[in-house]
Amino acid sequence: MPRMRWLGGAIVAVGVTSGVAAAKIPFPAHSPATAVGTWKLVTAKANGKAVDVPAGTTVLKHVTPTDFVFVYYTTQGLITVAGGGRYTYDGTRYAESVEYGVGEGMAPYVGKTQQFTLRIEGGRWYQSGTETDGTAVEEVWERR
C-alpha cells in the first residue's frame, strides 16, 4: 500500500509498486478574497476585551474548499486545542459547523454552528459575530 506524503500544496503517493508513477495533484487555485488557505491569528477580542493567547502558542486556521480546522500549538509543536468541521462562506457571511474538537473549552462548541460576518482584505481575515453561548467575538487573521 502506498504511503501518502504532503509535499508543497499537494498530496502524493510514495513507495508505489504498481508501476504507476506518483503524480503531483494540485489543489484548486484561490483568489486573494477567498477563505481557502492557511491563516494565523493576529488579534482576538471576546465581549470587547482582548483575548490573551498563552505565550509561545500559535493559533492557525486551515481552510479547504469545504472544511476548516484550527489548532493551538506550543513552541514544542504540541497541539493543546483543535477543532474543525464544515463551513459556508458567501462573501460576507461565514458559518463554521464544529463537528469535532479536543482540548480545554471545546465541548460546548461540538455539534453547533457559529455565525459570523467575514471580510477578507489585503491578506487579512476580519471576523465578527456572536457565538452560540452569547460571547461577542472579533478576530483578525493573517494569510500565511
The number of helices is: 0
Helix content: under 10%
Domain module tally: 2
Q: Going across the biggest sheet, name each strand in turn.
A: 3-5-6-7-8-9-10-11
Strands, total number: 11
Order of helices and strands: EEEEEEEEEEE
Question: Layout of SSEs?
Answer:
Layout: E1 3-7, E2 10-14, E3 37-46, E4 49-50, E5 58-63, E6 67-73, E7 79-89, E8 93-102, E9 113-121, E10 124-130, E11 136-143
Antiparallel strand pairs: 1-2, 3-4, 3-5, 3-11, 5-6, 6-7, 7-8, 8-9, 9-10, 10-11
Describe what you observe in this structure.
The chain has two domains: 1-29, no CATH class; 31-143, Calycin beta-barrel core domain (Lipocalin, Beta Barrel), CATH 2.40.128. The protein is mainly beta. The two termini are 33 Å apart. The model is unreliable at 1-29 (pLDDT under 50). It has strands at residues 3-7, 10-14, 37-46, 49-50, 58-63, 67-73, 79-89, 93-102, 113-121, 124-130, 136-143.
Q: How would you briefly describe this protein structure?
A:
0% of the residues lie in helices and 56% in strands. It is mainly β and 144 residues long. It has an 8-stranded antiparallel barrel. Strands 1-2 form a two-stranded antiparallel sheet.
Question: Keywords for this structure?
Answer:
two-stranded antiparallel ribbon; 11 strands; 2 domains; Lipocalin; 144 residues; disordered N terminus; eight-stranded antiparallel β-barrel; mainly beta
